Amino acid sequence: MGGSSALNGTGNEGDQGEPRVLVVDDHDLFRNGLVNLLSEQGVHIVGEAPSGEDALRLVRELAPDVVIMDLNMPGISGVHATREIAAVAPRTRVVVLTISADGGDVVEAVMAGACGYLLKDSSIQQLVDGIKAAAAGESLISPQIAAQVLQLLRSQAAGLGQSESVRADLSDRELEVLKLIAIGKDNAVIAQELFISPKTVKNHISNILMKLQIENRIQAAVYAVRSGIV
To answer: In which element (H, E) is residue 149 found?
Structure first.
C-alpha cells in the first residue's frame, strides 16, 4: 500500500494520439478507484504515485502526456510538484484534481504550470474531458470555481500601467482573443464571435503565449485579469 507504480510499460508504448496518464494522490483508496474508473473509460494509465516525490520520479521515467495531480499531500505539495514538472518535463500537462475550491489555491496551481483545475466531485466525464483538453493544449476549470477565481484575480489586479504594457505587446486582434479567453470562452466560441476560423484562433493564442512568455491559456486569463484588461 502507498507505493508508486508504473502500469502498461514505459516510454511511448501507448496508442498514437491516446494521452498517457499518470495519477498522483496520497489516498490509496481514492487513487486506486480513480485509476479503475479512468481505465473503464478507455484512458491509458501508465502509472500512479502516492506523493509528489514519486510523481517527479515517474514523470522522468515514463514521460506521460498528462498528470492528474492532487494538491494537498505530505512532503512535496502538488503545487511544488507541478512547478517541478513544468521545469523538467514541459511537454507533460498537469491537471489538478482536488477538494479545494479556494481561489488562491487555483491561482497558485495555475501559475505553477497547471493547465486544468477540477474538483474531486466532478463527474468522471468531466475529468476525461479535462485530460483530453490538456493533451490537446487546451485548459479546463470546474465551472463552479471559475467565477470565483476571476473575482479574486480582479481584486488583485495590478492596474492600468501593466495593462498599457500588455496592450503595447499584443496586436488589436490578439487583445480581442485574450479578453475572450479571460472570460472563459473556448476556441469555437471565440472563432464565432470574431468571424475567424478555429485554426486562426489557435494561431493567435500561440502568439499571445509566446509574447507574454506564459505556458497556457489559463495563465493568459490570469495575466489579462491581473493586468486590468478585463
So the answer is: helix 143-155
**Helix, strand, coil in percent for the chain, rounding step 5:** 55, 15, 35
Rounded distance between C-alpha atoms, residue 219 and residue 71, angstroms: 18
Q: Tell me the CA distances in angstroms from 14 to 64, 69, 176, one per residue in order.
A: 10, 21, 38
Question: Whole-prediction pTM value?
Answer: 0.72
CA 160 to chain centre: 28
Place of cell 474531458: 129
Rounded Cα distance between 149 and 203, Å, is: 26
Question: pLDDT tens across 186-210, in order?
Answer: 888 899 999 999 999 999 999 998 9
Q: What is the rounded average pLDDT for all residues in the chain?
A: 83
- 33-92 pLDDT, tens digit per residue, is 999 999 999 999 999 999 999 999 999 999 999 999 999 898 999 999 999 998 899 899
Tally the C-alpha atoms within 13 A of residue 89's C-alpha that lie toward its C-beta. 21
Domains of the chain: 5-150 (3.40.50.2300), 157-226 (1.10.10.10)
